[in-house]
């Protein structure tokens, strides 16, 4: 995130997916990740059109880059990428059915309205004109200088094109969304009309306390059958999981504290007890050899330091030590090595690359030629900094070149390559020099410097409080004993034994193949557990044990159900729909009793069910009755004749019988034209999402990912 905050690059690239890639000629390459593969294949079909691996990888790449820029995890985005690939294909199909066409000219004309560009004012000049020619030029520069970044732009463009197609599709279809005068007048009537009623309510929960109801699997299945689209599901697995954490014991904690105390004051074994953290003259080497975390030479603000020392460093002298103190699951001792104001540096650079280095993909010059050119440019710029921009044409970093070579304001904490940072730290405003990095030769010019708040360089000797071999063996023994006890047993026996022993038990009922993490678990082993559950060799009732890398934690998994793509398994969604189904069963019983009573007034029904007759004023558009939203009850109030009892009404919270006493009109402000505009606005707002859902619900979608992953597993 510091990179994105500090480096002012092309604004439209910062908004897009290739912001990180555009900084690749300055940023330390160790922080960049390769996010996608290149094996061919078809991952699925939407109405017969293929979703290729490239389609899927493009969507995943976009999501991962966006997540990386926003500081979110880049794992577990596969399912979201699949959904985006499906939706993009549906939009494209609808776009083509309408006979629409997205030309190159239309793309560039509409680009200014895409959120990626429209939300950044730097893409517009002082008069509000979109800098289309400038952006086109930048894309052309990418095409000729860096194939990888240009390929990333093509991925970005494809995502933008889908959004453009979606806007056109929705705009064309939404033109048919109209509201008639009669519709508006009816809406106004319903808004203004009030009914005064008496009613009797038999509450579901109160009834169930006296008349317990059991919801069977068949009851759930019958409900699902009536709502097939609502319960359309991808393949999933029902899992039973028991988690055995290898938490350090009190003995382990004491051993870690003893170890760090020894290193702090008595000396390390490597030095024969002569060199300790207190007396060492080479703090970075001592930390490197003895700490569980590497030495960090960065200067931090006091607020960024551990809570134990952040309020103490300001008044401390260099060499002061603190600790040992506990920080989460670590013991730490700290030493103040230096303090200084934080300098921010505004700089620009020209990168002269050569054939064979990381930035020289399309460069033919040799390393010797590159150095000669860089030294020559450096000498000219050093003598006359105003000539800097004349040499930007030689730069192999088109991203910074488009900004006059600027890499923006940086601090020592900015993750640039060390050589670049060293030059900035050791030179003042106006300095120009040639610096070599793995990307080539940088002609760096420091434009400005300013001092900030005090920063501190601290050496931290860290020891992780880990479970000992003894502790891990105890956990392993416990987990192994448990899995032996449940071999061949039912899921209920598995669950009951776990609960009896107070083990950490969970039962995620609809685990998807590509969801990444398992609810209630959340370990680095989740993906492996999911892959195991979806292996074609698995059968219901299978169990296995997994070890979480680096922790000694154990997971015992029980495969409780295999749900293929199609309609949801009733038991898998029991928690979701059981309350609804239960209320429907209760409603049926109550209704039968009301009908059998043949009551002629509400007092008789109130007495029969031991409830109180109540009164309320209801409205069709705001159907609140006694604190509950009851649209069916409001409907019955306006549908029944005055002074007559309604039929039993199956409400949200109980069964009602209503008697209407009177109707009145409470005229609200607003004319027909205003109501028409309001309804049209609401309908248009809801349209896009509902239209896309309708396309997806009615599409023939084939998902081959599970088969492909199973084949890959078999081949490994």
Gist of the model:
The chain is an alpha+beta fold. Mean pLDDT is 85; it is low at 1-40.
Written overview of the protein:
The chain is an alpha+beta fold and 716 residues long. Helices cover 42% and strands 20% of the residues. It is built from 25 helices and 21 strands. The strands form six sheets. Strands 5, 11, 12, 13 and 14 form a five-stranded antiparallel beta sheet that branches. Strands 6, 7, 8, 9 and 10 form a five-stranded antiparallel beta sheet that branches. Strands 16-3-20-19 form a four-stranded antiparallel beta sheet, with helices on both faces. Strand 1 and strand 2 (49-52) form a beta hairpin. Helix 5 (78-97) packs across helix 9 (147-174). The longest helix is centred in the first third of the chain and has 28 residues, at 147-174. The protein starts with a helix and ends with a helix.
Which keywords apply here?
single chain; alpha+beta; five-stranded antiparallel sheet; 25 helices; 21 strands; 42% helix; globular
* Main β sheet profile: 5 strands, antiparallel
Question: Gap between N and C termini, in Å?
Answer: 37 Å
Number of strands: 21
Strand proportion, as a percent range, falls in 15-25%
Q: Provide the residue-averaged pLDDT.
A: 85
Give the count of helical stretches.
Answer: 25
Binned, the helix content reads 40-55%
Low-confidence segments, given as residue ranges, are 1-40
Compute the CA-based radius of gyration: 34 Å
Question: What structural category arises from helix and sheet content?
Answer: alpha+beta
What is the global morphology?
globular
Membrane topology: Single-pass type II membrane protein
InterPro entries: PPIase_dom_sf, PPIase_PpiC, PpiD_chaperone, Trigger_fact/SurA_dom_sf
Subcellular location: Cell inner membrane
Keywords: Cell inner membrane, Cell membrane, Chaperone, Isomerase, Membrane, Rotamase, Transmembrane, Transmembrane helix
């Amino acid at each position: 995130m510091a990179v994105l905050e500090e480096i002012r690059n092309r604004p439209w690239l910062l908004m897009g997916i290739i912001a990180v890639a555009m900084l690749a000629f300055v940023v330390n390459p160790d922080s960049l990740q390769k996010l996608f593969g290149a094996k061919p294949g078809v991952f699925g079909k939407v109405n017969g059109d293929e979703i290729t691996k490239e389609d899927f990888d493009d969507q995943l790449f976009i999501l991962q880059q966006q997540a990386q820029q926003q500081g979110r995890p880049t794992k577990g985005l596969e399912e979201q990428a699949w959904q985006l690939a499906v939706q993009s294909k549906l939009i494209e199909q609808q776009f083509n059915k309408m006979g629409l066409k997205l030309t190159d000219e239309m793309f560039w004309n509409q680009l200014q309205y895409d959120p990626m560009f429209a939300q950044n004012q730097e893409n517009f000049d002082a008069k509000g004109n979109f800098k289309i020619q400038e952006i086109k030029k930048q894309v052309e520069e990418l095409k000729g200088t860096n194939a990888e970044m240009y390929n990333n732009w093509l991925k970005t463009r494809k995502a933008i094109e889908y959004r453009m197609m979606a806007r056109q599709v929705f705009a064309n279809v939404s033109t048919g969304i109209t509201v008639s005068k009669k519709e508006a007048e009816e809406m106004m009537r319903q808004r203004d009309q009030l009914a005064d009623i008496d009613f009797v309510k038999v509450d579901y929960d109160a009834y169930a306390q006296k008349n317990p109801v059991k919801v069977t699997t068949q009851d759930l299945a019958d409900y699902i059958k009536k709502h097939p689209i609502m319960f359309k599901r991808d393949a999933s697995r029902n899992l039973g999981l028991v988690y055995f954490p290898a938490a350090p014991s009190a003995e382990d904690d004491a051993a870690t504290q003893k170890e760090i105390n020894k290193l702090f004051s008595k000396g390390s074994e490597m030095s024969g007890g002569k060199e300790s953290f207190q007396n060492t003259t080479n703090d970075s080497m001592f930390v490197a050899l003895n700490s569980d975390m590497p030495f960090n030479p960065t200067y931090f603000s006091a607020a960024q330091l551990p809570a134990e020392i952040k309020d103490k460093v300001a008044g401390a002298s260099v060499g002061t030590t603190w600790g040992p103190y506990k920080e989460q699951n670590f013991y730490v001792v700290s030493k103040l090595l230096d303090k200084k104001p934080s300098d921010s540096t505004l700089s620009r650079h020209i990168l002269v690359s050569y054939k064979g280095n990381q930035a020289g993909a399309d460069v033919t010059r040799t390393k010797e030629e590159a150095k000669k050119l860089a030294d020559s440019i450096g000498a000219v710029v050093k003598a006359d900094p105003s000539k800097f921009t004349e040499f930007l044409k030689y730069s192999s970093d088109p991203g910074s070149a488009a900004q006059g070579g600027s890499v923006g304001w940086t601090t020592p904490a900015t993750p640039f390559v060390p050589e670049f940072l060293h030059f900035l730290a050791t030179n003042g405003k106006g300095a120009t020099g040639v610096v070599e990095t793995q990307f080539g030769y940088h002609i760096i010019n420091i434009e400005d410097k300013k001092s900030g708040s005090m920063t501190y360089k601290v050496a931290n000797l860290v020891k992780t409080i880990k479970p000992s071999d003894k502790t891990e063996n105890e956990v392993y023994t416990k987990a192994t004993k448990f899995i032996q006890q449940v071999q061949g047993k039912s899921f209920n026996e598995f669950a009951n034994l776990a609960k009896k022993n107070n083990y950490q038990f969970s039962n995620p009922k609809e685990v998807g193949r590509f969801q990444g993490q398992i609810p209630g678990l959340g370990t680095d082993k989740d993906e492996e557990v999911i892959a195991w559950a979806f292996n074609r060799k698995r059968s219901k009732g299978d169990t296995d044990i997994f070890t979480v890398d680096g922790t000694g934690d154990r997971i015992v998994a029980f495969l409780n159900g295999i749900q293929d793509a199609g309609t949801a398994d009733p038991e898998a969604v029991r928690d979701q729909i059981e309350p609804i189904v239960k209320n429907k069963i209760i409603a049926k019983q109550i209704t039968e009793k009301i009908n059998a009573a043949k009551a002629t007034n509400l007092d008789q029904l109130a007495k029969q069910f031991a409830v109180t007759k109540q009164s309320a004023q209801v409205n069709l558009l705001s159907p609140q009755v006694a604190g509950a939203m009851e649209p069916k009850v409001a409907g019955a109030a306006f549908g029944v004749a005055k002074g007559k009892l309604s039929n039993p009404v199956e409400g949200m919270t109980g069964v009602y019988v209503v008697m209407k006493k009177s109707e009145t009109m409470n005229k609200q402000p607003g004319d027909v034209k205003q109501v028409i505009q309001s309804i049209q606005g609401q309908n248009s707002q809801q349209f896009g999402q509902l239209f896309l859902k309708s396309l997806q619900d009615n599409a023939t979608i084939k998902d081959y990912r599970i088969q492909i992953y199973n084949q890959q597993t078999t081949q490994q």
